[in-house]
């Protein structure tokens, strides 16, 4: 569930653990689906110029960014602009708009919403020390719940920059991880900086936050999210299949990747493109928040998170805060420390870029994004998978794919549906 920032600053080996935590069996090049003219399903109103503009953007992205499949939904003030699927899920099986996929970092916005709902209910406070509930975790007496949510604790990440951990993930992508195993790899290390004085993307924060909220309420995270967030928002297609299972409800969008090529020592001349749909995502976020969804729920999420639907005004302002702008810096040994600006500002589990708020997961051959422009009430949601020619000879994503292709594609869509207020253009 790392987002654009993490993607940009992490080592190439540990690609986007996603927001999408899929897993799968190895398959060779014989099952490739080259990026070509896509099969299309969904809702289309050809007379709508906005829809035609979005359709053109996606059709071009399918070719330019070597996409195997794309599922896209755009709404403006609650009215559909386009809901459409392109390309193939599996060879000979078209992608469809009702397909389910992993939502990765999108769940971060649900966990942060849960925290703020509990703050509004006065059950916890953003300034509460984490040690009140998880005293056994090193440094928990130095960090607050709010700092965990904003990723300003200084904890080292167990994913980004951790090549040893990445090697284990790629060696056995079906392994089931416990929160305790994951935290043990990093929490004994010194903090990167004094809490509250800088920022770095670290999955570690949300793993600890999830444990703290479970203990603060005496309830499991999956139950908390259903009761306080998913249920109230009507997200009936967003679920956690439960610990130990990487299942995805049918119909499922299948993902494929070449990311393990270097780890497995497969020569560049040998075709290698394996299914990653059912790789185990247990390492991606706190238990109970490892979810699957569809494009309709993702679009509903864009609107709900973008408007702070479940939150008080004070909590909503905290969630989309841009207060880190001008207050963070690069730091030796910190892969994701950097100066935040109007281009990228991290609030509480949500990113503000220009006037848009968004999340954009990428993991194991599947990318996604949701974005919302409050002033125009425009919501964009999409899920993408990649063709074999999206991958370079070493198994990394090619430059033209654009880092997380979903981050690039939603910005291109946003530029045509809200040309008067486009998001910043980001470099791959």
Question: What does this protein structure show overall?
Answer:
The chain is an alpha+beta fold. It has one domain: Beta-lactamase, CATH 3.40.710. It has helices at residues 4-9, 49-64, 106-120, 145-150, 163-171, 179-184, 203-217, 221-233, 261-264, 295-307, 313-319, 405-417; strands at residues 40-43, 67-76, 79-90, 93-94, 101-102, 256-257, 274-275, 292-293, 345-346, 351-353, 356-359, 362-363, 366-373, 378-386. It is globular, with a radius of gyration of 20 Å. The two termini are 17 Å apart. 58% of the residues are buried.
Feature tags:
428 residues, alpha+beta, Beta-lactamase, 10-stranded antiparallel β-sheet, two-stranded antiparallel ribbon, 15% strand, globular, disordered N terminus
Terminal residue distance? 17 Å
**How many strand elements?**
14
What Rg do the Cα atoms give? Answer: 20 Å
**Alpha-beta classification:** alpha+beta
Beta-strand proportion: 5-15%
Helical run tally:
12
* CATH-defined fold name: Beta-lactamase
Based on the structure given, which CATH architecture is correct?
3-Layer(aba) Sandwich
**Which outline best applies?**
globular
Low-confidence stretches: 1-38
Q: Major β-sheet, in short?
A: 10 strands, antiparallel
Number of structural domains = 1
**Residue share in helices?**
25-40%
Element order: H for helix, E for strand? HEHEEEEHHHHHHEHEEHHEEEEEEH
Query: Would you identify the CATH H-level superfamily?
Result: DD-peptidase/beta-lactamase superfamily
Overall pLDDT score: 90
What is the chains' assembly state?
single chain
CATH class: Alpha Beta
